[in-house]
Amino acid sequence: MTKETMTIYQAYPKSFKDTTGDGMGDIQGVIQSLDYLERLGIDMIWLNPFYPSPQYDNGYDISDYTAVDPRYGTLEDVDQLIQEADKRGIGIMLDMVLNHCSTYHDWFQKALAGDKYYQDFFYLKPAKPDGSLPTNWESKFGGPAWEPFGETDLYYLRLYDLHQADLNWHNPHVRQALYEVVRFWLDRGVKGLRFDVLNVIGKVDFVDSQEPGSAQEKALYTDTPIVHEWVQELKRETFGQYEGIVTVGEMSSTSVAEGIKYTAPQREELDMIFSFHHLKVDYQEGDKWTQMPFDFLELKRILDEWQVGMSREGGWNALFWNNHDQPRANSRFGDVVNYPYETATMLATAIHLMRGTPYVYQGEEIGMTNPDYSTIEAFQDIETLNNYQILLDKGVSESEALAIIQAKSRDNSRSPMQWSAGAHAGFTTGQPWLAVADNYSTINVEQALAEEDGIFAYYQNLIQLRKDYPVISQGSYRSLFLDHPSIMGYIREDENQQLLLLANFYGDPVQVDLSDFQVDLAWRKLIGNGPVEDLTDRLELEPYEVVAFIREK
């Protein structure tokens, strides 16, 4: 199993499968689903945090790194999951949240109690002489990035929720404590590590930004040179000492140049990174909490920049449309009402046949959509609720604010996995922590497995193609039709084969002129979701149709 040939499945445990009836998914639910995931053909399961947590940020506020929250199960359950998955040739990837810990963690509580050793685990700063906060930085969840530190005259840094205190990586004791956490899980047989917001661990200059929340501000603490030194140390001290470990870093607001540094093999850092620029093409003037049609030309430009740039110097991309922080891509970039199958399979093919390691987010493989909750009370996510209030404070009407939330909330991807047409979509026998989408009676695993030519079967095929064709797993990448208003195209190539992908991203048929392209009978259809069978000088693609052709050299 290598990063080039593998496909990784992301399971959000809280919403995946509940075996106890408490309305929250659990580790046993993942164990019970292993046969289903083996049938899909994936090689590794990435699990979002299941550690003890007060759940202010859905488990990314960790109060104990080496235990399991009783709501999810026990350490023995995790051991069983690792063993049962391994029997099926599936590795387990855990989420490592090492930029910050919960304010309920012992480290922070001891710091609050006056322990100087643990106070140095955090960024504690006094107010400025004028009484204002240490810097004017803005939290990524809204509001100031500094909170009062107990009854002292100090403030602690929190780039995220106020219950998530940023850890001081400059302190070698902090780094060693975190490395012990990583080794604890590797010693239990974990085969993959996903590092949360890893590129913001290197805060160096605590100076005011020109504009709170701006790109200039983020650059003050993002991708600083010391981050690379620490990631190299992290590898040396932890996963570099184990065989066959797969690593991926979540990199907020990063660049291709930095992505190469993180992932080029000779630098001894990570296997791959997540970058998010392609998922900001429907942000009006860079603001997530707005509504606009996605900018297709910009989407293609960004994907091309990362594909070409990373391959030029040996970098490696994680390929994805969906995760627990994003609305569902089919609801966002396609038409899930009129073309649900075509939308889902087109998007999947376009991303899976690129250069990188594909990730499938739970439910994506059966066509799950945004749940379209009708009231703000249905949402649970802290970022969502904060920004709903911010929108109202800006004078946006309640109906317009709700429409924005319905399109952009992270809860869109966190609605429970739809297993059957039964009560609560078969997710739980109790009351689900987050409401199930109304369309579960027609979009569910039981229905998907019964369809020979449905979305699930298509995903099985795509995942297998990456294993069978080196041109997909290792070939070069070159874009086509970058200026075309509705077609994405690219060429993958190695010494033996060429692969051509063409995808229609819109709901109208479109003609593609290939007269300048080498069209001959050597090309054969590899995969597609529509009627096109043969490569000709002029192809007509139906709404959301995708097709890939391959030829021997």
What is the CA-atom radius of gyration, in angstroms?
Answer: 23 Å
> How would you sum up the major sheet?
8 strands, parallel
- The number of distinct helices, counting runs of at least 4 residues, comes to 18
**Nearest-integer average pLDDT:** 97
* Inertia-based shape: globular
In spatial order, strands of the major sheet run: 11-10-9-3-2-1-13-12
**Which bin fits the share of residues in helices?**
25-40%
Report strand %. 15-25%
Kindly report how far apart the N and C termini lie.
Answer: 27 Å
Question: What structural class results from the helix and strand content?
Answer: alpha/beta
Parts with pLDDT < 50 across at least 5 consecutive residues: none
